[in-house]
Amino acid sequence: MKDRLVTLVKYRYEYRAEILQDKLDEAGIESSISNESVLGQIDGVRVMVMDKDYA
What residue ranges of the chain have pLDDT lower than 50? Predict the structure, then answer.
């Protein structure tokens, strides 16, 4: 099975996503942050993990 990124949570502010990413890193879980934009406006910040780590 091929691993894929899934959205764990979506925040309005990037600093909250960075805090969660730090906690995930401490637990040994790789994650990434993606800024969503609509018409040039930031619409949210998603924290994504591999689907095997989602649970």
Answer: none
41 secondary structure, DSSP code: E
**Burial class (CB within 10 angstroms; exposed 0-12, middle 13-18, buried 19+) of 40:** exposed
User: What is the amino acid identity at position 8?
Assistant: L
User: Using CA atoms, how far apart are residues 33 and 23, in angstroms rounded to an integer?
Assistant: 13
Tokens representing 5 are 């990124």
Tokens of 4: 């894929």
Q: Domain map of the chain by residue range?
A: 5-53
* Residue whose C-alpha is closest to residue 44's, from 9, 7, 10: 10
pLDDT at position 22, please? 97
